[in-house]
Amino acid sequence: MAQKKRIDYIDYLKGLTILWVVWYHTSHPEFVDYPPTMPMFFFLSGIFFKPYPLLEFIKKKINTLLIPFAFFYVVYYIYLILQWSIHNPLSSFDFSCFWGIFRLYKSTESFPVNPPLWFICALINQQFLIYFLVKANLKRVAIGISALLISLFGVFYFYDVKAPFMISRCMPYFIFYSMGYLTGRHILSLIDVEHGIKTSRQLGLCGLTVFILCWFIKSAYNLNHFLGALVSYAEIFAFILLMIYLLKYSYKLPFLRFLHFYGVNSYIVLGMHEIILTIYLICYTNLFGQPGVSGGIIILILTTSTLWPVIQILNKLCPQLIGKNELWK
């Protein structure tokens, strides 16, 4: 499979984003709950979307998304069986949870098997949705407006509706993936100083200014649901813009180098971190009781450290199962 041309600082930002997700899944301080993490992941993924001919597009999505999803799903299912069998008779295990992927879900409900895989499920939904918008020959502005309307519909009318394959949970984020596709490359060209260092700085300053302004508006005024959603979208986009700018000019710092590794292997982190984190959480709880913030940081460090060799092993032994090489040629 032809390798995508990688942009180093985007991989660093992906690494930061995906490790933030890992931190979110253990004990953490309140600021970790700030919402741009998931939208930023989708925006960065949208930058590299390409509307190939339909059969080629389906083949690529099967190789890069569906097969890794199935692999990490099965691995986690086996882990659940093993974990249950340690203290319980195997006959009492609910083997039917495997089919939980086909249930209907709403809002923040998660798969009973490997809950973080909803991220990959969201990417599948979003990529097929934007593919059909692009292939409908809509102009870019029309795609952007359609994406905003679809996302707002998801926020106000569909979020609490039970639907298959996490569609209810994914729809509000569609605007971020779409804007990554529609504007991401242009933003990168501006930040990459193709239009001069002054333009790059102005773009970063614009992100900071809009982010602060939106935060102030949300804090100072009691906005209705619709205006609140629009301001939140603007705030998150500004934050994403600011983070892209900051990583562009800081990613070469030596202490940030580890982010590149996790960014390049973000799908593996998504698929495997819950197993490792849960094992450390059980061990920590048995030894010290429920972890606080400091315990959460310890579990985060242990989880990410363990992920390092796990990622290397999976990349070497089964690249076709984790989206690195084509299984369906």
TrEMBL record:
Keywords noted in UniProt: Acyltransferase, Membrane, Transferase, Transmembrane, Transmembrane helix
Domain Acyltransferase: 8-304
Tree of life domain: Bacteria
InterPro entries: Acyl_transf_3_dom (IPR002656), Nod_factor_acetyltransferase (IPR052734)
Pfam families: Acyl_transf_3
Segments passing through the bilayer: 9-26, 38-58, 65-86, 116-134, 141-159, 171-191, 203-221, 227-247, 259-282, 294-314
GO MF terms held by the record: acyltransferase activity, transferring groups other than amino-acyl groups
Cross-referenced PANTHER family: MEMBRANE-BOUND ACYLTRANSFERASE YKRP-RELATED
Name of the featured protein: Acyltransferase
Organism: Duncaniella muris
